Each structure stands twice: as C-alpha cells, then as structure tokens.
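User: tokens in, sequence out, please.
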C-alpha cells in the first residue's frame, strides 16, 4: 500500500484546479471477502469446468472494500464478482494514461466508480453510489489495482489448486502477466 501524507502542488496544466490540495501519496486500500455460502458450493469439478463467465462473474462473489485515505468506495453488497471487479479496476486505471475518464461498471448493476485524470500524474475518484471523492497519484492506483488483482488470483489458486488446470484461468493469469487486460475485457464481452 502507498503511504505518506506530504502535500504538494503539482505543476500547472490545463486540468489543475489551484484551489485544491493534492496529497503526494494517498493511502489506497483494496480488499475483498468472498460469500461463505457460495464458497461452500464450489468444488474441484466446478472449478475445472468453469467458463470465463463462471470464473469472472458467477463463482467468486462477495464484498469489495476500496478506500483512498478516509474516502470509502466500499461495495459491501455480498454479490460483487470480485475477480471481474479487480480486472475492471486495473484496466480502468491503466486507461487513464491515454484518456481523461475511465469507469469501472459493476456487473448486474448500474453503479460505477469513475476515475478522472486531473493532470498527467493525478486522478480523482468518485462513484455513483456514494458522495465520497478522493485524489491520488495514477501510478499508485496502477500499483495497488495490479497488486489487488494478483492477490485475488493467488488466493483462488491457493484455495482451489485445481483451478490452475482451468484453461480460462490460465489465460487470465497470462494476460495479467503481460499486462493485457483490455484483451481480457474483449474475451469477457464475447463470453457473457
């Protein structure tokens, strides 16, 4: 996690609002918990035969806890597809390098988290379901969302070792290794 509380004024550019103070290093926290009942239904056979949609949307649902400093964007709704959330979060943050806004849209819901580039290094975070707002470094968001995604993949591999035999899970792991989540989104879109 990123730590630090020094405040700094970024160099002037067309996105900068001089009335706002931006923390140099915000504390970003991403975590999750899986629904215990749903977990009890998952066995090695289910994992071995799971489709890409099963893996990303249906099998691993629960709560997602996401905060930046004191701003909470938690989605403790019990049904959030955590692997899909992690893929979308990482992809959305990576898109900020080339666009002003990127969105993480929740599956089976109209809610979203919006990431808006302020300048070349800072981003604002807001969500449709909370009044919380935060500003942080884009590079810190990239690091933390990638760590979160890798943590989920490692946790699933540890809980269900047979998941490594699932071709779709191997593809997701390989795409993350080469940092090509846009391809994952394309594959997901075709298989839902």
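Assistant: Sequence out:
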């Amino acid at each position: 996690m990123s730590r630090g509380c020094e405040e700094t004024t970024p160099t002037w550019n067309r996105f900068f609002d001089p009335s706002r103070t931006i923390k140099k290093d915000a504390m970003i926290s991403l975590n999750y918990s899986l629904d215990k009942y749903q977990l009890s239904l998952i066995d090695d056979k289910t994992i071995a035969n799971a489709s890409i949609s099963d893996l990303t949307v249906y099998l691993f649902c629960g709560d997602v806890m996401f905060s930046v400093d004191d701003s909470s964007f938690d989605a403790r709704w019990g049904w959030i597809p955590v692997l899909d959330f992690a893929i979308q979060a990482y992809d959305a943050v990576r898109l900020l390098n080339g666009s002003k806004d990127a969105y993480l849209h929740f599956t089976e819901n109209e809610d979203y988290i919006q990431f808006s580039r302020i300048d070349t290094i800072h981003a604002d975070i807001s969500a449709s379901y909370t009044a919380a707002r935060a500003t942080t470094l884009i590079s810190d968001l990239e690091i933390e969302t990638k760590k979160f995604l890798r943590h989920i993949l490692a946790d699933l591999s540890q809980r269900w070792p047979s998941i490594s035999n699932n071709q779709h899970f191997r593809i997701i792991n390989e795409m993350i290794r080469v940092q090509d989540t846009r391809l994952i989104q394309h594959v997901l879109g075709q298989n839902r």
